């Protein structure tokens, strides 16, 4: 990878819902501006109205924590960003860690090392903004210097390259698209409910109340009225308000 080229791969099959996982080790040293991703998308099939579910690592500079961003949108609704960001309490460039997307008709759950970090339930008012069509799985590394690290403050420095992201242990399990009939779902997905259990919910609240640094659901400068899937959590709100009182200055 350099200033104008990138690298990536994608699955051969498309999936309508599924359980997707990889283990990933990020590039070492200073990686400001270098974006590494694991995501599902159908942009190649629906270029102007695609769906997407994202894990995005936003580069790293010395002395700061790694930032992970999650996002999703459906039917090309990119003008309504649903980003969340977290400062990880481990160094993802030192060893492999697990990242998982669990996507059904009615929910999306993101996991890091088997801990749920974000859970989105589809509500009627979200309409086509919720990803609903078949997607491929992707892994990419590319130059996001104009926005990724510190909002674009820190640029990619090629003298620290080469930048190498290592992926392994893929799981792509779900409902592969069948061109001649309905998608055939595996037993795991058929039995997957639309919510997470109390133990996982407690793990998620602990992660978010300590490590989340941004959520669109609490950003009144961006959305006067929260988007319909947002669920207010006082612990999350108080944590974000302490970090950035200007952005998260009052309760919704």
UniProtKB/TrEMBL annotation:
MF terms (GO), sorted A to Z: hydrolase activity, hydrolyzing O-glycosyl compounds; xyloglucan:xyloglucosyl transferase activity
Domain GH16: 1-167
Active-site residue numbers: 52 (nucleophile), 56 (proton donor)
Gene Ontology terms: cellular component: apoplast
Any one biological process term the GO annotation gives: cell wall biogenesis
InterPro entries recorded: Beta-glucanase-like, Beta-glucanase/XTH, ConA-like_dom_sf, XET_C, XTH
Entries under SUPFAM superfamilies matching the protein: Concanavalin A-like lectins/glucanases (SSF49899)
Enzyme nomenclature, EC number: 2.4.1.207
Entry keyword Transferase: yes
Location in or out of the cell: Secreted, Cell wall; Secreted, Extracellular space, Apoplast
Mod. after translation: Contains at least one intrachain disulfide bond essential for its enzymatic activity.
Keywords for this protein: Apoplast, Cell wall, Cell wall biogenesis/degradation, Disulfide bond, Glycosidase, Hydrolase, Secreted, Transferase
Pfam families xrefs: Glyco_hydro_16, XET_C
Purpose of the protein: Catalyzes xyloglucan endohydrolysis (XEH) and/or endotransglycosylation (XET). Cleaves and religates xyloglucan polymers, an essential constituent of the primary cell wall, and thereby participates in cell wall construction of growing tissues.
Family: Belongs to the glycosyl hydrolase 16 family.
UniProt cross-references to PANTHER family, sorted A to Z: XYLOGLUCAN ENDOTRANSGLUCOSYLASE/HYDROLASE PROTEIN 8-RELATED (PTHR31062)
Name by which UniProt lists this protein: Xyloglucan endotransglucosylase/hydrolase
Species in which this protein is naturally found: Phtheirospermum japonicum
């Amino acid at each position: 990878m350099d200033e104008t080229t990138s690298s990536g791969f994608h699955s051969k099959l498309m999936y309508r819902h599924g359980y997707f996982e990889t283990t990933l080790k990020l590039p070492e040293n200073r990686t400001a501006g270098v974006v590494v991703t694991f995501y599902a998308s159908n942009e190649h099939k629906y270029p102007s109205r695609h769906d997407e579910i994202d894990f995005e690592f936003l580069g790293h500079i010395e002395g700061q924590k790694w930032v992970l961003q999650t996002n999703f949108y459906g039917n090309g609704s990119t003008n309504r960003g649903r980003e969340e960001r977290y400062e990880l309490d481990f160094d993802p460039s030192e060893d492999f860690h697990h990242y998982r997307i669990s996507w059904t008709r009615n929910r999306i759950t993101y996991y890091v090392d088997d801990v749920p970090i974000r859970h989105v339930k589809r509500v009627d008012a979200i309409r086509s903004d919720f990803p609903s069509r078949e997607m491929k799985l992707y892994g990419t590394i590319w130059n996001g210097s104009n926005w990724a690290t510190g909002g674009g403050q820190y640029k990619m420095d090629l003298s620290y390259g080469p930048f190498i992201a290592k992926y392994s242990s893929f799981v792509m399990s779900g409902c592969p698209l069948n061109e001649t009939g309905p998608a055939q779902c595996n037993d795991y997905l058929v039995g997957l409910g639309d919510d997470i259990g109390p133990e996982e919910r407690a793990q998620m609240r602990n992660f978010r109340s300590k490590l989340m640094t941004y959520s669109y659901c609490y950003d009144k400068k961006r959305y006067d009225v929260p988007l319909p899937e947002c669920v207010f959590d006082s612990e999350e709100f108080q944590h974000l308000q302490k970090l950035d009182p200007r952005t998260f200055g009052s309760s919704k």
